[in-house]
Amino acid sequence: MSAILKIDFVSDVSCPWCAIGLKSLEQAIARLDGVIAADIRFQPFELNPQMPPGGQDINEHLAEKYGATPEQSEQTRAMIRARGEQVGFAFALDKRSRIYNTFDAHRLLHWAEHEGRQLALKHALFKAYFSDGENPGAHEVLIRIAGEVGLDAARAQEILASDAYAADVRRQERYYIEQGINAVPAVIVNQRHLIQGGQPAEVFEQALRRIAAQA
Question: Which domains does the chain have, with CATH numbers?
Fold first, then answer.
């Protein structure tokens, strides 16, 4: 009988290592078919909660936040592209010129969980930002993507025009910060076991196998 593992994937849609980590985690879960049954829930984390709606030039942002030079930023992009290729995710980082506010994307993801479309929406948001260079905070982009993954686009528009799920998202964000999560992705299994970072599939597989054996 498969061990049932509840996985909370704490992440932001503007985090490239989160996109890599999700693909790696899914590969690990596929390898453990018959050994585990994974229930993945996406939890909100904003890398830049104070980011204004119009966003900020990405090179300017990286220099201000991390002190990264243009050369260091390009080296990091090359590393991300290579890791993306390994897990089957296409990064077109030349299209990504700005960092955006992602709070509304997290509100839609919260709603999508109730609709059974959270995983599909998460993948679509990663693709929109990292592969297509779109703004994951723009309402017209979010509404279109919601419809493309099978959600009610009219309801998505209503949610974004209101403050629906805002309190829920902020409560979840505070909870994980209070639990000591200050970097993402953070993969929490059965509310007890933490796997930090966009690890290779082999690392996730070993960790999940060990946790399943303990369960």
Answer: 3-214 (3.40.30.10)
